[in-house]
Amino acid sequence: MAEFRVRVSTGEAFGAGTWNKVSVSIVGTQGESPRLPLDHLGKEFNAGAEEDFQVMLPEDVGPVLLLRVHKMPPAMSCLLRPLAQDAWFCRWFQLTPPQGSPFLFPCYQWLEGAGSLVLREGTAKVSWADHHPLLQQQRQQELQARQEMYQWKAYNPGWPHCLDEKSVKDLDINIKYSTAKNANFYLRSGSAFVEMKIKGLLDRKGPWRSLNEMKRIFNFRKTPAAEYTFEHWQEDAFFASQFLNGLNPVLIRRCHCLPKNFPVTDAMVASVLGPGTSLQAELEKGSLFLVDHGILSNIHTNVINGRPQFSAAPMTLLYQRPGGGPLLPLAIQLSQTPGPNSPIFLPSDDKWDWLLAKTWVRNAEFSFHEALTHLLHSHLLPEVFTLATLRQLPHCHPLFKSTGLGIGGFSELIQRSMKQLNYSALCLPEDIRTRGVEDIPGYYYRDDGLQIWGIPSSLETREALVRYVTMVIFTCSARHSAVSAGQFDSCAWMPNLPPSMQLPPPTSKSQATPESFINTLPPVNATCDVILTLWLLSKEPGDPRPLGTYPDEHFIEEAPRRSIATFQNRLAQISRDIQERNRGLALPYTYLDPPIIENSVSI
Hints:
By secondary structure, the chain is of the alpha+beta class. It has helices at residues 81-84, 133-149, 179-198, 211-218, 224-232, 236-245, 266-273, 279-285, 351-392, 406-420, 423-426, 428-435, 444-453, 462-484, 487-491, 514-520, 524-538, 558-582, and strands spanning 2-10, 21-28, 31-32, 36-38, 50-57, 64-72, 88-96, 103-111, 115-120, 152-154, 161-163, 253-254, 288-292, 303-304, 307-308, 315-320, 327-333, 344-345. 39% of the residues lie in helices and 16% in strands. The strands form 5 sheets. Strands 2, 3, 4, 6 and 9 form a 5-stranded antiparallel sheet that branches. Strands 12-13-16-17-18 form a 5-stranded antiparallel sheet, sandwiched between helices. Belongs to the lipoxygenase family.
């Protein structure tokens, strides 16, 4: 007979404890013990508790390989259904034999109802390191169970595959959303909704009366960045800067040759370029940049309040002045087809013509961002990575309603983008090089993102694997923060980022007026719907897990723990550098400051 000590840690989250009875079986190279109850006088397994139990093995089972955990409802639980379904979040088990060092078995899972769970000792192992047949068998059984639990499906044709569940309620207990996040999210959304309702804005289906009237909603939950946007949204330099550090900083690219369907001439841009130069000279210098929203051409649009909405597929030419001056817009064409009905708008045009053209570009930015940069790249693709991980890697492995396009247009955009998507575009260093924006000044998304990426690129080698894993981590954490956290800041003053447009793009100049500008913007209720939504999506709803924070301690070896500490120290230094730089900026760029970045997509 041999006496083992079993130490059990229960999670701290609300509802993590259980009234159910727990026992363990110790599996060794020479056999498996009977079930050994973990029982004290009184209640065990309270939330946040760490408890010790002594168990006696009737026979020696040899060196320990696995720990089998059994959870059963207490006697008479059939009379009390909640006890029979009582879930338990177990953090880990520690098993100490009569002689030798303890074994740690990480769990970090919810166990619901009656059943058993097999845990492995926490040392990270790849498949070829499993030398015992029982470990090999356990690995295969775990993967088979995961693949049965997490099934693929196509939500829409042409979209990335996703988890095969019909609703959030159907999700497995192991994918529980934080109770604190959930409560905070609904409290915030409820209070914001009531505030808008009291102001009488949610039920108004007509247009805004003036820009001044829009200030009524702008006072809703203002932020310093939103106030800066309100003060500067009409300025050309601010318009251009948002392609670098706004919520869609991934589309701008250096232009070495003007597209044939964008016939800008020297005469058009002479007032901005100044004397002694030309378009060709600036193209050769590399000081011109292009933002092309061509993927939006002929996209299906939404119907809001019974009115069809409109969309444009603009091209925007930008100029980087020598000596580190601000990036400036040179010309805007609102379609991909030049001609008399598609004029090229210029900074020298009438104020309202030029402002309306820029606002159409900002509307295209909204559609591109929400459908592709945000939804596709920062939510749908991370779900693919997550599902693939759940299906293929066991625990021991070391590793739309108020928008101009609507769900139909979003779906069409995603289908188009998936046909163009490639691996290099997801890897930040390669994406920066491909777009030719390595040296454009004031590009803080690039500067901060490359620091956090922090891995040299080289899935046939270890370097290629590191690159791939880094891409997944960056996409699910830093990139999501960069394109999500600033949504409200950019959209709180709606004319800066209109979600829909009620009139078609202009086909001639000298037609825009303050009244036609207002009438082109989305109606009052649609504006409020989108601002409410983006305010909720931009704000972490509590229980944050910043990048580099790992409350679930799956790694027990010293080497990975040292790596984690090094990573955390590096993130702390990056944060200090970002905060120091931001002190000198009129509009600080905070979205890639490591304490703000969540470990994963959390909202």
